[in-house]
């Protein structure tokens, strides 16, 4: 019997060449994060670009829908696809941990905006421009 769950993530390549193994890695990393969040689903977009000097730059962007009120967006760029995916994962995990702290402190289910803005509002700090 196969106990593998279908992936809650769609991985798209929007430009350049991204190896199938790297697409699978993005699916594995972000899919794991979605599964830990419960009923989350998401989309990852990978873009590989060859610069004029021959070096490469890869970007990884994600949108995760946690429930009808929670949406996480993050992006990262690096010289390799794996590094971009790892940086994206770190950013999404920081946002997820900020959500958990926010829910715990306020006892709410609804979260909107970025974590820094929410922390400033809770502490009533002025927003610097």
Label this structure with key terms.
Double Stranded RNA Binding Domain; 29% strand; alpha+beta; 3 helices
List the helices and strands and how they pair.
Layout: E1 9-15, H1 20-36, E2 41-50, E3 56-67, E4 70-78, H2 81-106, H3 115-123
Parallel strand pairs: 1-2
Antiparallel strand pairs: 2-3, 3-4
Helix pairs in contact: 1-2
H/E order of the elements? EHEEEHH
Number of strand elements: 4
CATH homologous superfamily placement of the domain at 9-91: Ribosome hibernation promotion factor-like
Which term fits the overall shape?
A: globular
Strand content: 25-35%
Quickly count the helices.
3
For the sheet with most strands, the description reads: 4 strands, mixed
The separation of the N and C termini measures 57 Å
Determine the CATH topology of the domain at 9-91: Double Stranded RNA Binding Domain
pLDDT below 50 for ≥5 consecutive residues: which ranges? 108-126
Which class best fits the helix and strand makeup? alpha+beta
Q: Strands of the biggest beta sheet: in what spatial order? A: 1-2-3-4
Overall pLDDT metric: 78
Helix content: 40-55%
CATH first level of the domain at 9-91: which class?
Alpha Beta
CATH architecture of the domain at 9-91: 2-Layer Sandwich
Rg result = 17 Å
